[in-house]
From TrEMBL:
Function: Catalyzes the reduction of 1-pyrroline-5-carboxylate (PCA) to L-proline.
InterPro entries: 6-PGluconate_DH-like_C_sf (IPR008927), NAD(P)-bd_dom_sf (IPR036291), P5C_Rdtase_cat_N (IPR028939), P5CR-like_CS (IPR053790), P5CR_dimer (IPR029036), Pyrroline-COOH_reductase (IPR000304)
UniProt organism field: Gordonia neofelifaecis NRRL B-59395
Recorded catalytic activity of this chain's protein: L-proline + NADP(+) = (S)-1-pyrroline-5-carboxylate + NADPH + 2 H(+); L-proline + NAD(+) = (S)-1-pyrroline-5-carboxylate + NADH + 2 H(+)
Residue ranges of domain Pyrroline-5-carboxylate reductase dimerisation in the record: 164-266
Stated family: Belongs to the pyrroline-5-carboxylate reductase family.
Name this polypeptide is given: Pyrroline-5-carboxylate reductase
Pathway entry: Amino-acid biosynthesis; L-proline biosynthesis; L-proline from L-glutamate 5-semialdehyde: step 1/1
Binding site for NADP(+): 69-72
HAMAP family recorded: P5C_reductase (MF_01925)
Gene coding for it: proC
Cell compartment(s), UniProt: Cytoplasm
Highest classification ranks of the organism: Bacteria, Bacillati, Actinomycetota, Actinomycetes, Mycobacteriales
NCBIfam families: proC (TIGR00112)
Amino acid sequence: MTERVAIIGGGKIGEALLAGLISAGKPVKDLVVIERSPERSAELVDDYGVRVSDDITDAVEGARVVFIAVKPDAVDTVLQKLSVTDDDGELERVTVSLVAGIPTSRYEAALQAGSPVIRVMPNTPMLVNEAMSAVSPGRYAEDDQVALTVRLLESVGKVMVVPEKQMDAVTAISGSGPAYFFLMVEAMIDAGVALGLTRPQASELAVQTVKGAGLLLSESGLSPVELRAAVTSPAGTTAAALREFERAGLRHAVNEAAFACAEVSAKTARRVEVEGSGQGVQRGVETASEQQ
Ligand SMILES: NC(=O)C1=CN([C@@H]2O[C@H](COP(=O)(O)OP(=O)(O)OC[C@H]3O[C@@H](n4cnc5c(N)ncnc54)[C@H](OP(=O)(O)O)[C@@H]3O)[C@@H](O)[C@H]2O)C=CC1
Ligand SMILES: O=C(O)[C@@H]1CCC=N1
């Protein structure tokens, strides 16, 4: 992995990618972060010893892969700067967006004609090399560029290649999914405290339970239904708890949450367009849903 990689946006997901790539053995000298916040830049330099620049044009020079990890509203500004940077023809730079809700067509329309673009939906467990990343190649991405992107992302977790029309659904399950589990764990800890445990006790019990349950799910080869049945004794404690979850409509709540998430993702490009974050990069805009 000697290809130079630039990460535009050193926030939560940009840092997760940076940390994951470094811990997977990517030499720090082959990485550069472009970050506009001076405080954030200083943190990244201190924590990772990585080069951090506030100049996109300078920093992406010589990079084979340019990850974009800014909020959707900041994408057009980044694209405007990227569109006037020279791509060394031999390098065949590929732009890889980690941004929710913005279709590859928007990048392709804003960058130089024929620029290869790949859209990715990662998640924050990338920080501990356990990401789930979904990858959708844009229309000009070559197979070797997709393979390189997949290889980089595989060094920080699992990768699934999906058609771009599935990206809103992917965002609703794996992209935002970690937050659903953190909310569940928060609620479990609060319940433990209500039952008389100290907060540290409840926290240790809940966190290890989620970790163990996650490992069982990924390593046992059993389905969630089978694993749940194995915990649930007839007329026992678990059955009593699960009955309350069903009565409170947990499945319905999860379904509604996922649909709300996917809807926001599908409407992101249009929202950014209407709210006018971009500075003139408005060509060829369509939402992910419109692409289907
Ligand atoms: N967080 C998550 O779990 C996931 C996030 N994503 C996607 O990743 C993207 C980033 O999210 P997240 O990391 O949470 O956001 P953050 O706000 O934490 O990070 C974005 C960073 O980019 C910086 N930035 C903005 N514009 C520029 C620019 N022109 N040049 C350089 N740096 C810039 C921001 O600086 P400043 O603060 O000054 O604006 C900020 O530090 C989003 O599009 C999101 O959809 C995808 C999957 C999961
Ligand atoms: O909340 C968000 O918009 C981003 C995208 C997926 C996870 N976080």
